[in-house]
Structures are given as structure tokens and as C-alpha cells.
């Protein structure tokens, strides 16, 4: 089976497993609605914090509330998509420790697809909804001279950002093959990364900005392309074409995460239990 065939089989397996968990969730619809609403409210507290902050100041690092809301909406929505699609990968460590990961290896389906769809949590739509609402308000409130390129760049940022965060989830899962108890380390780069991107780069030191631009390129989720849309200076004085690089950065991150996953899977040794 070629790469295309394996990809097709992986997508099919993922959809089947996710559908099974969705049917299970919909058995208790009231519980699902309450959980989703609770998830939306909890994630919304981050933006409430920003609003309260702006009640005391006019700008944050030189950025206005609608501009920060634009960054926030892009970060939260992109992360929410990745969290919905592959966020379950952060539970891999528990499976490795209790030996249940071995059951995934003997099933006739790609292992990564099984890990990503495991306990597919539809309640995570609350985070996506909240981020999209903030992004929608920001797009209406921010002062931007819209062009075709800027309009098209917004959905590109969301898709590319989700792919970048998805790659981080996958790489974190691969790291758990070595550490077997690294969920908190993984969360520092996923949940911690999206929190970092909710604030403008001007409030952080240059060394940190360099790190999330050239080492772990989370800056291409919203900081770099967002600066182009808002007419802001690029972080670290990057060239103008960098705003259109997110798809390339996302493709590179996905490729590297795939290599890391395969290396981790080859290095896995069963617990024997």
C-alpha cells in the first residue's frame, strides 16, 4: 500500500472511531450540551481577563483591544480545531504506562489515526465557538484597509495554525514514547503556546519571540501574518513575504512531526502487561 493508500485508510479509520465516540456522546445529550457550554464559558474567561486589562489601559504593547482580540481569536480558533481533531494524543502516556497501547498495534488501522480519534471529545467545539465569536467581533471592530490578499489570508491562517498546533500535538505524543509521562511537558507547548499567542509579541522579550519564530514556529499561527493584516511591523523585522509563509511552515511542521512519530513508534517497547 502506497502513501496515498495509507493516508486514505488512516482518514477512514479516524472517521469511524470518531463517529463511534460521537454516537456515545449523543446518548446523553443534556450532559453534552451542559459540558460544551461549560467549556465555552471557561475558555471565555481568558478573553474576559484581556477585557478587564484594557479597562485600565488603552493599549497593550502598543496594540488596541480589537487588534489583540484579532490575535486571540486566531490563536484560540486554530488551537481549538487542532485540539478537537488530535487533542486526544496527549493521553498517549497513560496508555503506554498501563500497557493498553499494545491493543492499538494489533488493530488493522494506522496507529496515529487511532490515537488521534481516541475518546473524540465533541465538547471541544465550545473552545472553537468562543474563539470564532471573538474573531468575528475583532474583524468588525478592527481598523483595517481590507484587500483581497488580507481577506484570503484569514482562513489560511486558521487552517495553517490548526496544522501547526496539530504537529505540536503529534510531536508531543512521539516524545511520550521516550518519557511515558510527559503530558504536562506537551501541554506547555500546546495550551501554553496558544496562551502566549493571545498577546502581542511586543510584550515579550526578543529571545522568546525568536524561539517561537525560528525554533518552534508558533509565531506563524497569528503574529507574523496578523501583523500584515493589521499593518503592524513584523516581529524581528522579518521580510514582507513571511506573512504568506504559514502554509509552508505548517507543511514543514507536519512533515517533521510525522518523522518524529515514526521514530517514536519504532522505538516503542511493550510493557509486557
Automatic annotation (TrEMBL):
Keyword Lyase assigned: no
Keywords: Membrane, Transmembrane, Transmembrane helix
Alphabetized InterPro entries for the sequence: ABC-2_transporter-like
Membrane spanning residue stretches: 32-57, 69-87, 128-146, 152-175, 208-229, 241-261
UniProt keyword Cell membrane, yes or no: no
Domain of life: Bacteria
UniProt-recorded name of the protein: ABC transporter permease
UniProt source species: Streptomyces griseosporeus
Lineage: Bacteria, Bacillati, Actinomycetota, Actinomycetes, Kitasatosporales
Amino acid at each position: 500500500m502506497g502513501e496515498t493508500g495509507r493516508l486514505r485508510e488512516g482518514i477512514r479509520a479516524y472517521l469511524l472511531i470518531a463517529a463511534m465516540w460521537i454516537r456515545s456522546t449523543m446518548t446523553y445529550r443534556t450532559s453534552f450540551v451542559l459540558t460544551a457550554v461549560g467549556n465555552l464559558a471557561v475558555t471565555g474567561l481568558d478573553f474576559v481577563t484581556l477585557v478587564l486589562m484594557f479597562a485600565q489601559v488603552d493599549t497593550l504593547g502598543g496594540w488596541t483591544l480589537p487588534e489583540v482580540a484579532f490575535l486571540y481569536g486566531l490563536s484560540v480558533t486554530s488551537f481549538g480545531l487542532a485540539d478537537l481533531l488530535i487533542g486526544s494524543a496527549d493521553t498517549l502516556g497513560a496508555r503506554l504506562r498501563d500497557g493498553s497501547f499494545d491493543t492499538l498495534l494489533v488493530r488493522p488501522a494506522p496507529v496515529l489515526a487511532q490515537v488521534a480519534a481516541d475518546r473524540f471529545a465533541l465538547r471541544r467545539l465550545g473552545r472553537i465557538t468562543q474563539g470564532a465569536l471573538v474573531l468575528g467581533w475583532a474583524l468588525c471592530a478592527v481598523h483595517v484597509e481590507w484587500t483581497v490578499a488580507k481577506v484570503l489570508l484569514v482562513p489560511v491562517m486558521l487552517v495553517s495554525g490548526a496544522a501547526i498546533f496539530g504537529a505540536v500535538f503529534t510531536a508531543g505524543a512521539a516524545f511520550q514514547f521516550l518519557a511515558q509521562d510527559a503530558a504536562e511537558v506537551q501541554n506547555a507547548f500546546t495550551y501554553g503556546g496558544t496562551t502566549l499567542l493571545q498577546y502581542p509579541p511586543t510584550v515579550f522579550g526578543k529571545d522568546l519571540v525568536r524561539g517561537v519564530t525560528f525554533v518552534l514556529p508558533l509565531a506563524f499561527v497569528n503574529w507574523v501574518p496578523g501583523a500584515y493584516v493589521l499593518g503592524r511591523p513584523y516581529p524581528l523585522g522579518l521580510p514582507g513575504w513571511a506573512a504568506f509563509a504559514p502554509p509552508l511552515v505548517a507543511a514543514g511542521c507536519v512533515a517533521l512531526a510525522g518523522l518524529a512519530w515514526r521514530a517514536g513508534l519504532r522505538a516503542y517497547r511493550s510493557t509486557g502487561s
